[in-house]
C-alpha cells in the first residue's frame, strides 16, 4: 500500500538509477515491491534487464485504459515492474494532455494497485513538475527528491524547501511535508562536492534521507543491465543504498500478512 515517489527538480541527477536500486534494496529487506516508470525516457526497465527491443509499457497504453495487471513484469531481481513504454515527442505531449483532461486515467488504476496492503510501490517520475507527479503526490507516503552533490543542487534547495517543483500553490506546500532528499554522486575527495554536500545537509537536517557516494560501479551496473547490490554487494554505493532503504523502511508501517490480489506477473 505505501507509495514512494522518486522525483527531482532537474534531470541528469541519477533519479531513475536510485529508484531502481532502492526498489531492489527494499525487496531484499522483505518487501513485495512494484516499481512503476512514469518518465517518458523509459529507462527504468534497463536496470532490470528488460531487452532494448521490448518497448511495450503501461503509460503508453494508458489512454486505452489497459488492465495494469496484464502488464506487470516479473524481473529476475524479484521486483515487479510496470515499464513506461517507448513514446515519441508527439505521443508524450498527447499523454500529458490526456492526463490534464482526465487525471482519473492514472489515479484510478493507481488506487487499485494501492489496495494491496502488503505491496510497496515505488514510482520513478519525470524531472520537474509533471501531471504524473501532481496525481501521484497526494497518494504518496513519501516523495524522495534526488539532488547531485554540486553547486547547482545547493542552489535548488529553495525549491526543495517550498516544494515548488511538486507543483504550485497550497497543494505544493502540503506535499512538501512528505518530502525527503537523497544526495547522489558525493565525492569526499573533491572539495567542491564535499562542500556542496555539507551545505545541503546542514540546511535540510532530518529531511536528508541519505547520500550515495560516487563510484564507477553504479554506471557499470547500468551498462550491464544489472543492479548494484547484485553486481557489487560489498561496494560503498551498495551500503549507501541499504542505508537509504533502511531509512525508508523506518518511516513505513510494518509489513502486513501476504495478500493475494488475483494478479500475477509475466
TrEMBL record:
It comes from the Bacteria. Pfam families: CBP_BcsQ. This is Cellulose synthase operon protein YhjQ/BcsQ. InterPro entries: Cellulose_synthase_operon_BcsQ, DNA_Partitioning_ATPase, P-loop_NTPase.
Amino acid at each position: 500500500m505505501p507509495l514512494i515517489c522518486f522525483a527531482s527538480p532537474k534531470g541528469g541527477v541519477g533519479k531513475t538509477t536510485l529508484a531502481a536500486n532502492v526498489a531492489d534494496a527494499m525487496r531484499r529487506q522483505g518487501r513485495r515491491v512494484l516499481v512503476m516508470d512514469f518518465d517518458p525516457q523509459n529507462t527504468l526497465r534497463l536496470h532490470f534487464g528488460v531487452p532494448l527491443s521490448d518497448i511495450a509499457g503501461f503509460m503508453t497504453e494508458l489512454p486505452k485504459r489497459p488492465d495494469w495487471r496484464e502488464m506487470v513484469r516479473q524481473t529476475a531481481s524479484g521486483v515487479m515492474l510496470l515499464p513506461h513504454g517507448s513514446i515519441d515527442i508527439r505521443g508524450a505531449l498527447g499523454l500529458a494532455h490526456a492526463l490534464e483532461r482526465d487525471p482519473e486515467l492514472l489515479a484510478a488504476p493507481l488506487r487499485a494497485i494501492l489496495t494491496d496492503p502488503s505491496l510497496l510501490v515505488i514510482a520513478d517520475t519525470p524531472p520537474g513538475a509533471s501531471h504524473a507527479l501532481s496525481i501521484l503526490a497526494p497518494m504518496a507516503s513519501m516523495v524522495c527528491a534526488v539532488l547531485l552533490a554540486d553547486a547547482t543542487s545547493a542552489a535548488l534547495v529553495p525549491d526543495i524547501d517550498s516544494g515548488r517543483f511538486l507543483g504550485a500553490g497550497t497543494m505544493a506546500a502540503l506535499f512538501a511535508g512528505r518530502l525527503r532528499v537523497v544526495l547522489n554522486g558525493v565525492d569526499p575527495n573533491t572539495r567542491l562536492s564535499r562542500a556542496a554536500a555539507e551545505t545541503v545537509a546542514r540546511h535540510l537536517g532530518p529531511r536528508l534521507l541519505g547520500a550515495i557516494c560516487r563510484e564507477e560501479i553504479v554506471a557499470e551496473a547500468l551498462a550491464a543491465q544489472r543492479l548494484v547490490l547484485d553486481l557489487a554487494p560489498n561496494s560503498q554505493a551498495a551500503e549507501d543504498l541499504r542505508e537509504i532503504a533502511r531509512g525508508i523502511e523506518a518511516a513505513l508501517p510494518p509489513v502486513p500478512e501476504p495478500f493475494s490480489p488475483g494478479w500475477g506477473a509475466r
